[in-house]
């Protein structure tokens, strides 16, 4: 009895193990794969032609969806409305399909393991989260153009092929294959995280901390050689300053895409190894590009790798509500500005004048008394990017207040540790302890890490300033650096101690 029970257990374990490993193999083999080709149907009418080769299909129906938003730009957009003549076919025959919702279609596979999905895409929206095709050039973010299979946005490799006019060049963060105009796609997340310009543009590279940074200005002919050289210097210095804070740059290569044209408004968007910075025109002095470039580049850590848990994985089908955007954006603004100072691209006085402007903005906003940073993060979908204009007038700008919360937290940690620790340690701890271990963070994690690093509790700080609407206590934080707010100006305390002077020096790289 005992023996046979044991044997049963062993057999049971054997079958469980066998079944588990087989089912893993089966899953990997049956993950539907989409390979994409982007071509031109009619450039004068702004029509891309997209072909998707679906393979590894083992089911009777396949759902395909268009994203309804672009990560980093927290607003729902009807990208699927630009899809024209959508159809699927195999062996010269149309496959039946029907709409499931406004952005999802269900294809009857009729037993085909591979088939093709074909459509045109109307691209007449040059925008930070848009796509445009003209006879001279193309620009797109993949969230606009490409379908995905729900449940398969991560972990399935594929390719993107370009069928474009001779003489057009491509700039994108996607990995180039050995074949011309063919790119390797890690998964759908990667495909839609690589804004792409096509046509003719100015480009140059710079090596920073051993990594190649590509600087692209599209279209060509907007920058003098001298201004280009200055821009190269600014970009490399600010990236180097940021990289040193984290002990290196977290990508193989990085692409800064400055794109100008017929925009409704400017804007910039962060990606894992690139940024698209959309401008009405190039500023005459390239110094004007440093603020936005520094902010976007800092995002390679903060939000692209150090991610709110609620954004893992991305759900392209609907709003993803998170309470951490004040940290993702506000602290990126804080560090974007601080690294311009640390890189020596402006003076301490310039930096402090910038903070005064931020303080004035917040103190002039009535909404600060009503909407916390966490709540304004959650409801950002109502107003992001200028939509919901009426509402926008009454929301707490978490870029603005988040930056000032970053300032306060940094100075309080420096003050509590006699200048031994800072917010830099919090950021590094999030990068190493969360991103590198495959985890996302929450507001509570930030509070916990900051408290551990400072050796004092920040519970009250989070209750009052992050989840509550108490007025920020600027003076309490500034005094650690021997500073105070006098009539809206940041000025020295009457008596500045040596310790305060030393703390200010290490904070502002004086
Ligand atoms: Zn940002």
Helix content: 25-40%
| Order of strands, widest sheet | 5-4-8-2-1-12-15-14
Oligomer: single chain
Q: How far from one another are the termini? A: 80 Å
Query: What structural class do helix, strand and pairing data support?
Result: alpha+beta
Strand content: 15-25%
* CATH H-level superfamily title of the largest domain: Neutral Protease Domain 2
**Which cofactor or ligand species appear?**
zinc ion
Mean pLDDT: 93
Number of domains: 4
Written overview of the protein:
Helix 6 crosses helix 10, helix 10 runs parallel beside helix 12 and helix 11 packs across helix 12. The radius of gyration is 26 Å and the shape is globular. The chain has four domains: 30 residues; 168 residues, Sandwich (Immunoglobulin-like); 90 residues, Neutral Protease Domain 2 (Neutral Protease, domain 2), CATH 1.10.390.10; 208 residues, Neutral Protease, domain 2, CATH 1.10.390. The protein contains 15 helices and 23 strands. The protein has 510 residues and is of the alpha+beta class. The strands form five sheets. The chain has an eight-stranded mixed β-sheet with strand order 5-4-8-2-1-12-15-14. It has a five-stranded antiparallel β-sheet with strand order 9-10-11-16-13. Strands 17-18-19-21-20 form a five-stranded mixed β-sheet, covered by helices on one side. The site of zinc ion has 5 residues, from helix 6.
């Amino acid at each position: 009895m005992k023996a046979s029970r044991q044997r049963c257990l062993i057999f049971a374990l054997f079958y469980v193990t066998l079944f588990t490993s087989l089912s893993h193999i089966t899953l990997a083999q049956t993950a539907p794969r989409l390979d994409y080709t982007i071509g031109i149907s009619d450039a004068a009418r702004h029509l891309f032609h997209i072909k998707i080769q679906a393979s590894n299909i083992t089911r009777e129906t396949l759902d395909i969806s268009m994203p309804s938003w672009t990560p980093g730009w927290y607003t729902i957009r009807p990208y699927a409305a630009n899809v024209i003549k959508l159809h699927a076919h195999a062996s010269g025959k149309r496959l039946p399909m029907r709409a499931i919702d406004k952005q999802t279609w269900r294809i009857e596979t009729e037993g085909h393991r591979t088939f093709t999905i074909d459509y045109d895409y109307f691209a007449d929206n040059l925008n930070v989260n848009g796509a445009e095709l003209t006879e001279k050039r193309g620009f797109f973010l993949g969230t606009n153009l490409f379908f995905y299979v729900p449940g398969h946005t991560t972990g399935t490799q594929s390719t993107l092929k370009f069928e474009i006019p001779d003489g057009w060049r491509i700039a994108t963060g996607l990995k180039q294959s050995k074949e011309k105009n063919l790119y390797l796609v890690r998964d759908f997340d990667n495909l839609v995280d690589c804004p792409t310009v096509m046509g003719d543009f100015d480009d140059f590279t710079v090596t920073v901390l051993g990594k190649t940074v590509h600087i692209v200005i599209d279209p060509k002919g907007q920058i003098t050689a001298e201004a280009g050289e200055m821009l190269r210097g600014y970009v490399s210095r600010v990236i180097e300053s940021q990289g040193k804070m984290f002990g290196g740059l977290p990508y193989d290569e990085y692409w800064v895409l400055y794109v100008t044209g017929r925009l409704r408004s400017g804007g910039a968007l962060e990606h894992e190894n690139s940024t698209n910075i959309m401008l009405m025109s190039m500023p005459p002095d390239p110094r004007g590009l440093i603020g936005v470039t520094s902010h976007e580049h800092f995002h390679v850590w903060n939000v692209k790798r150090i991610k709110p848990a609620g954004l893992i994985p991305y759900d392209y089908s609907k709003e993803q509500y998170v309470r951490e955007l004040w940290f993702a954006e506000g602290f990126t603004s804080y560090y974007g500005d601080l690294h311009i100072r640390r890189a020596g691209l402006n003076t301490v006085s310039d930096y402090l004048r910038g903070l005064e402007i931020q303080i004035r903005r917040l103190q002039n906003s009535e909404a600060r008394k009503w909407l916390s940073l966490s709540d304004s993060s959650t409801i950002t979908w109502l107003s992001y990017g200028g939509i919901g204009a009426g509402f926008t007038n009454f929301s707490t700008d978490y870029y603005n207040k988040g930056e000032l919360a970053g300032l306060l937290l940094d100075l309080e940690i420096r003050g509590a540790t006699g200048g031994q620790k800072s917010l830099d340690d919090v950021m590094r701890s999030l990068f190493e302890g969360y991103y590198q271990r495959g985890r996302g963070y929450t507001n509570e994690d930030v509070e916990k890490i900051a408290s551990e690093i400072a050796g004092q509790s920040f519970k009250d700080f989070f209750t009052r300033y992050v989840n509550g609407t108490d007025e920020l206590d600027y003076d309490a934080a500034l005094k650690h650096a021997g500073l105070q707010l006098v009539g809206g100006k940041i000025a020295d305390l009457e008596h500045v101690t040596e310790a305060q002077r030393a703390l200010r020096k290490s904070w502002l790289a004086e």
